[in-house]
Amino acid sequence: MPEKAGLSMHPKARDIFSYRKYWAHKFTPAPFLPMSREEMDDLDWDSCDIIIITGDAYVDQASFGMSIIGRLLEAQGFRVGIIAQPRWQDTEDFMQLGRPNLFFGVTAGNMDSMVNGYTSDRKIRSDDAYTPNAEGGKRPDRASLVYSQRCKEAYKGISVVIGGIEASLRRIAHYDYWQDKVRHSALVDSKADMLLFGNAERAIVELAHRLSNRENIKDITNLRGTAILRNKLPDDFTYIDSTDVEAPGPAHANIDPYASTPAASPVQNTAQVVTLHTRPKQLDRGKTAVCLPSYEQVRADPVLYAHASRILHLESNPGNARVLVQKHGKRYLWLNPPPVPLTTRELDQVYELPYQRRPHPAYGNAKIPAYEMIRFSINIMRGCFGGCTFCSITEHEGRIIQNRSEKSILQEIEAIRDNVPGFTGNISDLGGPTANMWRLHCREEKIESSCRRLSCVYPGICKNLKTDQMPLVQLYRKARAIPGIKRIFIASGLRYDLAVQTPEYVKELVTHHVGGYLKIAPEHTESTPLSHMMKPGIGAYDRFKAMFEKYSKAAGKKQYLIPYFIAAHPGTTDEDMLNLALWLKKNGFRADQVQAFLPSPMALATAMWHTGYNPLKKISRSKKTVFAPRGMKQRRLHKAFLRYHDANNWPLLREALKKMGRTDLIGSGKHQLIPNWQPKGTGDDSGSSKPRQFRTKHSGPAKKKTGRKRTLPKRRR
Questions:
Q1: From the centroid of its chain, how far is CA 121?
Q2: Residue 685 exposure: Cα atoms within 13 Å on the Cβ side
Q3: Which of 393, 391, 392, 400 is nearest to 321 (CA)?
């Protein structure tokens, strides 16, 4: 099968490597982007054009956002410095490289700082995988906000741009699990000049060149993939209420944000307002903005929050998305359409920039766990069209798969073999957000650019999706044939409902690329929780399991599937968790680690958890439709069902089974879940329901809390 040259979907976008290089390109590429004035002196730099502030340690490898953006801007001719994990209590560290000529770029790092710093039970994590020696406490809560404010304090009038996954997922008014309230857009709270969301290469390159040409950042309002604040809306746009995209049902008399009176209108006589259904074909999508309910409205009304969440996700296809507007106080948050995905050629060039593939020498012999995990792995693609409601990958990277070429991937394997210290011949992963979506795409560009589905594989695989994974099989075979390569493992999350569409792929994977265990994520067994996750039914897992066992036996290997499950997800009842526990026992699974649902910003499942309404469907005020296990005791119970074999959980489970009328499951029989006896020294406080006071890491003296041992978040598909 011939390889696609790259995405060409409408709208067209300028090649990010076609810009005329900035004058500073005369300086040779830096061995490492400088982190000190001494390094700048060694490079003969008197100043930096752009300085990146990051909450992670600086690892010069393409799995780390600050390295991709830094090296890309360097390739455009700009001098880029990095300040990694600065002390945020004052401005001293923010001034160590001097004032940047163009702007500060701020990111919390590869993870949202709150997800990084706290467990799903709001306990402080004791370590940080993105910090030397996994030391905790090296970044503040809501790091993007804090870093941005310190940059503004350090240099008056300096331009600050925030980006990365934390800013991306907090780009509109969003529910914050840790404060249990709806917060402003991160752009409002950070006081930054611009927010970049999604993969930001296109926006950051154009922004840097326009600023270098002396444009004022306040005048740069039309960049895709950016959010800005406006005091007044432009008159050359047509504005439609989000109810004209999809009405959320009848409103209460005291809250009518869609009234036609000037006082209630989100544009307040500054521009034209139309009703979409009266003029559907006359509106220019490029000059049309959808007005979401305001921050004040979504904060006060769960129905409007769920409605806004649904509209945001419906307006996420780069091919047909419109500008979104959300009022915050007296100002307007203006969200330009999402960025156009990179072509294969562009993505290859991004990953072929001169990365050193190791941490900055300033860290000495310190171990950075996140780097150690991906040291010998290779990203082959971006994006995910799965749309799992609890996952942030789709919201951040988009639903359209961006592919690297086979040639570029094979060249990187050789580069790792030849240049990365400690390489023993084993590639730890060929993957990305998913293991097996490489080169999967819609059968027609026109269909892809107009589609508004939230998932290409739920409730079933779309008939327009090409699911042939034989190109990936060919890639695996060519990769294994490279001299010096012993084994290539696949560690990224596997979308098994896609895998079974190409049995030859499953055979190739099982025969050559599984190291004894393969981790996959069915997430649940029951239909109601799975429907709220947008995950396939357990039957898809059973079909994959049969193939896995068949091909393992044919290869003469004893290999095992390790399934992952989520506790306390919206839409999950105690009965659902009980049925899952019985399935686990019947199949002989004993989970060592379990994951409770964590309501991350902007996720559809978070909207369900916060509001009780389901944004996968048209929102109605008639009644709440989603049960969410919010109480800490119930969340512990759901986790206890996943670890039914742990004696410390038995008192809590016995209590629950009695209330559920299922005492028949208490006993020592083969089909009973837990025994009626308790081992000495176990379960002393398993049933405690007393809530713990939540305290942030920086809220003053408190009794020291330690969370469970921190591991890197699993790629879940």
A1: 20
A2: 3
A3: 400
Rounded Cα distance between 29 and 519, Å, is 40
> What one-letter code names the amino acid at 467?
T
> Does residue 460 sit in the same domain as residue 608?
no
Predicted structure pTM score: 0.91
pLDDT at 699: 39
Residues in the chain: 717
Q: Are residues 501 and 567 in the same domain?
A: no
Beta bridge partners of 377: 429
Rounded Cα distance, 506 and 497, in Å = 11
Which residue's entry shows tokens 């209108």? 265
Residue corresponding to tokens 């405690």? 688
Whole-angstrom Cα distance, residue 164 to residue 466? 30
- Cα(515)–Cα(508) distance, integer angstroms: 13
Longest C-alpha distance within the chain, in Å?
78
Domain containing residue 546: 516-534+542-647
DSSP H or E run through 211: helix 201-212
Looking at the fold, whether 52 and 200 belong to one and the same domain comes out as yes
Do residues 466 and 524 share a domain? no
3-state secondary structure of 219: helix
367 inside domain:
no
| Rounded-to-integer distance, Cα 541 and Cα 495, Å | 10
Supply the CATH number for residue 139's domain: 3.40.50.280
Q: Can you tell me which residue has the tokens 């880029």?
A: 80
d(CA 642, CA 645): 8
d(CA 441, CA 394): 15
Give tens-digit pLDDT for 250-288. Answer: 544 434 433 333 333 455 434 555 544 444 456 888 999
Domain assignment present for residue 568? The answer is: yes
Q: Does 528 reside within a domain?
A: yes
Residue 191 belongs to some domain of the structure: yes
72: tokens are: 């890309």
> 530-550: per-residue pLDDT in tens?
999 999 999 999 999 999 999
Q: Tally the C-alpha atoms within 13 A of residue 430's C-alpha that lie toward its C-beta.
A: 32
Same domain, 381 and 457: yes
Pair of tokens at residue 146: 């804090």
Q: Rounded to an integer, what distance in angstroms lies between the CA atom of residue 535 and that of residue 529?
A: 9
Domain final position from 225, 259, 291: 225
Tell me the one-letter amino acid at 56.
D
432 touches 382 (CB < 8 A) = yes
Number of domains the chain contains: 3
Q: Which amino acid is at 184?
A: H
